[in-house]
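Entry type: protein chain
Record version: 2
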Amino acid sequence: MKLISTKSFASALIVTILSVGAISTSFANDAATTAITEAKKATDVAKKAGFEWKSWGKMYKKAEAAIKDGKAEAAIKIAKKLTFQGLAAQKQAEAAKTAGPRF
């Protein structure tokens, strides 16, 4: 039975660790992209109702830039804020339907 040399084993271990790191980065970017997609769904409904918020454009740009820079967690954080704001704008649109003076 032939044993693997220490040098070969160390090389294989390094390759494995780097591969796992690349895979986890890929999953993080996929999660960030999914979070942004969900945010777009929420904000698009609010836009159709006429309740788009000014900050959304800049926030989307920051989230996309964060993904490109490899900062998936920052992109997810921004996407969660966008989703919350989109849902809040939807509630605002619903409340506006019955808004008016009450005598």
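Comment: The mean pLDDT is 82.
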